[in-house]
Design brief:
- This protein is of the alpha+beta class and 290 residues long.
- The protein has a domain of 91 residues: TATA-Binding Protein.
- It is 47% helix and 11% strand.
- It is built from 14 helices and four strands.
- It has a four-stranded antiparallel sheet with strand order 1-4-3-2.
- Helix 4 packs across helix 14, helix 5 packs antiparallel against helix 8 and helix 5 packs antiparallel against helix 11.
- The longest helix has 16 residues.
Length: 290
Amino acid sequence: MTEHQVDIEVLGPWSLATSRTFWEGFAPAALARTGASATLRSVFLNEHDWSRTEVNVTQHDATAVISVSGDGDLEAAVAQVCRFLALDVDARGWPAVGESDAVIADAQRQLPGLRPCGFHSPYEAAAWAVLSQRVRIVQAARLRADLVREHGDDGAFLPPQRLRTLELDLPGRKSEYLRSVADAALDGRLDGPTLRHVDPAEAVSRVAQIKGLGPFSAELVVLRGANAPDAVPAHERRLEAEVTERYGPDRDLVEVSQAWRPFRTWASVHLRALREQRENPTGPHGGSGP
């Protein structure tokens, strides 16, 4: 196992502490809670070669110190970390969204420096989408934990080449759909950089062609798996309810979100996170939807 460390200049507001707290409450992330530690730690599959990778992230002012270790392409692993922690987004314009929208300004004050953390990869997001279909989040989290414990790679999720070969005893057609997700990952249809850099609507359309992934799941894969910063979920009722509550019944999400460009996903995640905090103040507040 080799190690690689790099310092990344983060452009715009960023608080590792706020982002880590958000991710620790993000249902499928399975982050170990680290108490008062100033370090974010995780283990993930490097989607470049599906090797197990460990990461430690610390913050020094506007610099993220990222240390990764594993047997795969560690430069690719660093880029993946930057993507799933949204450290690769130039957010110097994010405060201006709050200056033009009082609701978002309030969210920015309550969640200072939050950068929406996503899944480790679109592949893991797609697998979670399958596991969480038609079951409660707690049950889906248990199914995922069992898969990782029995078939994962020392805490990391199952590589797709392993997942596609398993005959799993899961509810409904989940086993079949997980194999479809694994095939898509190996075929490159869930490639993070590709989904991140095409138009989000086009990316969602591509992902929705994968067996077992409908429109809601495809949005999850793109918005929280590829961590696209500027898109609005079209199938998120709780976000729509939050917009109605905060902006009034005569305003809708599509209209309101125009003022959030080019950070529509970020604004959506802020509003969802605050709603989760109000509705479930002692439980996960990152949510599992887009």
